[in-house]
């Protein structure tokens, strides 16, 4: 049966034209096995048990021995009952007949029934799922072990086409990071020379890679894995679904799926507190539109505002701006007619950056930037910061580059707004950089370096980016 049911992709056609796309032939072997799995048969107790918990039915037999339970279940595959433990009164065991033997599982209830990770509304559902899993894993153990070796994922026409379009679009809209060397020029009096020379090194490629955000999912009706094309067996929690793009795969297949998630805007529930890469891919932009819109509004009417970014706006109004972006996206109204105080818009931008689940300067690069700030030699310090910038994910790099260019322009109005690079570094250091362990003492000890990193990125924005 396995040989005849294990279909290949010979019937699917891969084309660069989405209209010519032919879906793969889903492999039916595991689906057929699920249909063949034994059905649950409840063995009821002939008498009413006063000690029966209210969440069990007539399948509860009270305190009986394993041997007696085995006698009751021997008649048919899939038969089951619940007994109270003789050794530990008050604890319960699910006795289940499968493979011509009785299997015993410790049974728990916390509002739902479970013996492992999965939780069920009824014992009957639990047993149904258990019989399906036991039957398939017994009959097709070797098949399951090999089902990821010939995946269909890379052969899906729409997947490769979507990826090509995304890379092509982003490659046109993004400025590539430059690898530079900082050198001293004797003709310039400044202690730190503002001159860079391009190295003959490979430029950072625009990949905008994003891992899938897989979560356990219960599928209603038959579903097939979009990685290996095999049936996703079981009654509940048959596999995982990416909450950002909707990809459905087996849990074991999810570990092999490439980091090529293309978020579906319909699945992105909010703008604030959304992963930076997820948001820009969902909106087909190189930077979050919140950053673009807020900066555009600030540069339109707020560059001379005293204490810009240092003075706080009303928190209630900042929260209103957040809700407006989450609700209306790029159509959110943050104009002067809606929010006359520019500090509200500046506060909303800081809130957005502060609430990112992964900071603009990512957790894994935090220590690299902190150590760079501690380097005494000015040129070497800039080199180290530049090396860190080259390692940022593309969306993070673009956001930081755009923000630093904006803050550099803010310092040009220092006479009016009283905000120089050092002051802005104090404000944005903890916003853009957060230690991975979220330790208050670490944050306090690193504040000077956080401030210095941002200050240097503003002062040397034209060289570093």
Write a concise keyword list for the protein shown above.
alpha+beta, six-stranded mixed sheet, 42% helix
Fraction of residues in helix:
40-55%
Strand residues, percent? 5-15%
Detail the poorly predicted runs.
1-23, 157-174, 184-207
Distance between the termini: 61 Å
H/E topology pattern: HHEEHEEEEHHHEEEEEHHHHHHHHHHHH
What's the count of strands?
11
Q: What gross morphology would you assign? A: elongated
Radius of gyration: 30 Å
Major sheet: size, sense and barrel closure? 6 strands, mixed
Output the number of helix runs.
Answer: 18
Helix and strand layout, with pairings?
Elements lengths: L1 H4 L23 H8 L4 E2 L17 E4 L2 H8 L5 E6 L7 E7 L2 E9 L3 E2 L8 H17 L1 H6 L10 H17 L6 E3 L13 E3 L15 E4 L21 E4 L5 E2 L1 H4 L21 H7 L6 H13 L13 H14 L13 H13 L8 H11 L4 H13 L3 H18 L2 H4 L3 H12 L7 H20 L1 H4 L1
Helix pairs in contact: 2-4, 9-11, 9-14, 10-11, 11-16, 12-13, 12-17, 14-17, 16-17
Short description:
The chain has helices at 2-5, 29-36, 66-73, 123-139, 141-146, 157-173, 251-254, 276-282, 289-301, 315-328, 342-354, 363-373, 378-390, 394-411, 414-417, 421-432, 440-459, 461-464, and strands at residues 41-42, 60-63, 79-84, 92-98, 101-109, 113-114, 180-182, 196-198, 214-217, 239-242, 248-249. With 465 residues, it is an alpha+beta fold.
